[in-house]
Design a protein that fits this description.
The complex is a heterodimer of chains A (about 120) and B (about 260). With about 120 residues, chain A is an all-alpha fold. Chain A contains four helices and no strands. Chain A has three domains: about 30 residues, no CATH class; about 30 residues; about 45 residues. The longest helix of chain A is centred in the first third of the chain and has 25 residues. With about 260 residues, chain B is mainly α. Chain B is about 75% helix and about 0% strand. Chain B starts with about 25 loop residues before the first helix and ends with a helix. Classes of the chains: A mainly alpha (about 120), B mainly alpha (about 260).
Chain lengths: ~120, ~260
Amino acid sequence: MDGTHITSLPDTWWWPFVMILVAGWLATDVWRWLGVLAGGRLREDSEVFVWVRCVATALVAGVISKLILFPQGALAETPLALRLLAAACGFAAFLTFKQRVIVGVLTGEVVLLAGWLALG
Amino acid sequence: MSASAGEPPDPSSSEKDTGAAPVSERIWMLRGARAAVSIPALILTAAFVGYAGLARETGLSLAETLVMTGFVWALPSIVVLTGGMATGMGLVPAAIAVALASVRLMPMTMALMPLVKVPGKTPTWKLLLASHFVAVTAWVYAMKNLPDMPRDGRLPFFIGFGGSVIIFVFTMTGISYMLVDHMPPIVAGALFLLTPIYFLCSLWGAARMNADKAAMIAGLALGPVFFVYVPGLDLLWTGLAGGTLAYLVTRIMRRGLS
């Protein structure tokens, strides 16, 4: 068993590209195209527009909490409390320092790395 | 699309928005490209550097990694697909998983359209092409800054911005794939945490009204709940339930029960 290699069913060089284009590109861009078609009639000053923005914002926020609570890869090794603390400190620093994104991101990273090293 | 086609493009279309001399589309595109040289673009690049490490460890080739980056262009979907390919997931289940992870792009694109579209003038194919750049970085920047620009310049600006970010990130992802043989877990972990913290701050910064902030809080709270109870469809429910709740509550606050 070679665990480091992709074990897609048809073992040809082009299969991964079919996967990427169909399961990746099409499955993603179809939402963007639908958004263009459905959003074409929206008006910037309508109540529907406010609602659509709310749905979009809540969806992205859902992605955020999933990435923090149920992360992939190396980050999954860290304790949940540390990830929450890092995110909370980063956001607090962002709000405190004139909403500068870079301040929030760097603060969060410093807290994560300090905690990671401290925990060994 | 039949919305408002048919009207011939008006040569004097720079009516109310544009104040001074009209600026050509090319100039707006260049302005967008210049605006793309920014901290958010660098943060996104760093997150993709982290992804290059994951892709290499997963066994994706350089070409596969780059095709994935350029064609999918939404980091959460890319991570889902990479995980699926690593475990030998079939085409259809992988497509469903990725589609569910990228539902958010539809309302995001919908919300962008009224900002970039010049009614009766912008061809739909241009909007379809530009929609590929819709991902959190360009979207957040657009929702925050486009309303202050003349309407004619918004779409070319967005294309210039999104195109530059994608080209830069694509290049850096390739370079880091080749250079970084093995990424220490602490570096990879730190790069993975960039995305959520960056999304957290920039999404809040892009909120133009209370409804947006309420939606963000609702989404943060409901995301994990739905993930536990309706895995797979969780993001869809988070968006619909959280977004609608936030909309209704702030609407009542704005204008009462009318």
